[in-house]
Amino acid sequence: MTSPRFSILIPTRDRPDTFQHTLKTVMAQVGDDYEVIVADNCSGPRTKEIVDDWNSEKIKYIRSDAIIPMAENWENGLNECSGDYITILGDDDGLVPSSLSLARNVIDKTQAKIVSWALHTYWWPDTIVPWNRNRLYLEFGDNAVHMDKRNTLIAFYQGQISFGKLPMIYNSFIHKSCIEQVRQKFGRYFAIPHIPDVFSGVVNLTIDGDWYHVNRPMAVRGNSGKSNGTAQWARSLGEKQREQYLIEEKVKLENMIHETLVPSPNLQIIIANCKIKCKELIFPDDDELTVDIGMVISGIITSLNVEPEAYDDNLFDAKALADKYNLTIDPSKIPQHQPTHRQATSGPIGTKENTTGIAVNGDLADISDINGACRLADALMPPV
After folding, report:
1. Residue at 289 is within a domain
2. What distance in Å separates the CA atoms of residue 84 and residue 179, rounded to the nearest whole number?
3. pLDDT classification of 342: cutoffs 50, 70, 90
């Protein structure tokens, strides 16, 4: 195969049980205009065996002989991509069967250099979050919208949107010319260690090229038992996986978090850390894009009962950050600890007036992996 239109890069680190199903979702795509790059970060032999079993010229496999930081492995994989449009797919995530068909339609109609998409979410049966095990959360949407990069960047820094709304290479096809623009500025595409996904989303908002966002999900985000993202989101449950991540990244938490913050796995602090590091490198003199420490503290306080199991740890971090800046937290603003009864969700999601999605019980739907989740997700959507 020559000159593929799409490159799908799958970095993987010894997760053959999920990787094999992720690869199935990619190889199920219609057409011959795509390639698959597997960047194996020193996994055991099973990962290579899974690739070899496909015996496909579409798949290119590379492997590091020692465990390297995530951003370095991603960059190595990116170097092997020859497609016009490139995306990165986690090794517990998946593409729905219509992904490339929809991407072709949007690109042909808009000539966009960046095409991002909404995500369904699948919680694998082994996730560390027990009340979500084998649950598929589907999002409804069908249109493609031209996006304003500057307004999105401002909204992110002001805390109006989450990093998941950014055009990250982790939820977008990025034209190779955009990637080259970043490399010309910083020498590499993933220019900040340890936060390659968020960095890509921020830097992609500062380069030339139209951006369209597709509200119909083109992929399913998988949260498996080894998910680093889940380990950050579920602070009380993810300590073991966070420790493993830091070992493999060859960094201590206090060295990973910016010195203007406090070392913590709290999600609000992690996001602030990303914002500060991106600002220092990409737009240090842009006074409109700043991190408000008071807003970070307020974000921690108002979300204390989102994960009541980590209430005390998160409150401690909020107070430590306030002390660092000689700020006072109004005691009346601190919500009382309210333990939550956890139970699985099933059925429509949204308000009485507007259903925005649906939660599916994977056990009843007879699915148990990301490939089954992707196929079911597309089966419940209108045809492309």
Report:
1. no
2. 10
3. confident
